[in-house]
Amino acid sequence: MARSARQSKILELISTKEIETQDELARELKNANFEITQATISRDIKELGLTKILSSSGKYKYTFVGSDEQAISNKYISIFKEAVISVKSALNLVVLKTMKGMGSGICSFVDKLNLTDLMGAVAGDDTVMLIFPSTVAASEIVVTLNEVLK
After folding, report:
1. What confidence score (pLDDT) does residue 69 get?
2. Which residues contact 137 (CB under 8 A, 6 or more apart)?
3. Residue whose C-alpha is closest to residue 76's, from 4, 20, 147, 132
4. Are 114 and 70 in contact (CB under 8 A)?
5. What is the DSSP letter of 132?
6. DSSP 3-state of 87
7. Distance (Å, rounded) from C-alpha 133 to C-alpha 72?
8. DSSP state of 55
9. Residue 24 C-beta-side C-alpha neighbours within 13 Å
10. What is the pLDDT of residue 150?
11. What's the whole-model pTM score?
């Protein structure tokens, strides 16, 4: 569980901040109460398939680069399975309850799924809300996401 939580936090951090070095990433993780070593960070970066790109500020930063055709790695699916508590629909919305602190990382993962008809996704600390154009579309995604959880 700790590895999945840590890797989810890494995904959240690199999606919200410009993390240029492993030292910066370690500092951010320690600020989030994760005990971490440099070797563990290197392993997480490799397992998550992170790479560095040039940001708009001219600094290099860690990011996840994938294409629409690229299969979602088993690591992301494992994090999803461990972090998501429930998936339910409410009219045209899909609400994912997650473990505390995992909302942003799970929301980032869901965005990478390129779900059909997804109009938007909003993350809180332990909740992700997905917005669809209809109740039918929302209901279909609930079935799909619950299958991933099995």
Report:
1. 34
2. 92, 116, 117
3. 4
4. no
5. -
6. strand
7. 25
8. -
9. 10
10. 82
11. 0.58
Judge contact between 90 and 135, C-beta under 8 A: no
Residue with tokens 């088993």: 74
- Sole residue written with tokens 């560095």: 52
Q: Among positive and negative, which fits the CA dihedral 116, 150, 76, 92?
A: positive
pLDDT averaged over every residue in the chain? 85
Instruction: Tell me the pLDDT tens digit for each residue of 68-81.
Output: 334 456 677 788 88
pLDDT at residue 133 above 90?
Answer: yes
CA 63, CA 18: separation in Å to the nearest integer? 9
The whole-angstrom separation of Cα 57 and Cα 18 is 9
What are the CA-CA distances from residue 48 to residues 20, 78, 81, 85 (Å)? 16, 11, 16, 22
96 beta partners: 87, 128
Q: Which residue has the tokens 């992301």?
A: 76
Is 66's pLDDT higher than 60? no
pLDDT digits (tens, 9 = 90+) for 6-32: 888 898 888 888 898 999 999 999 999
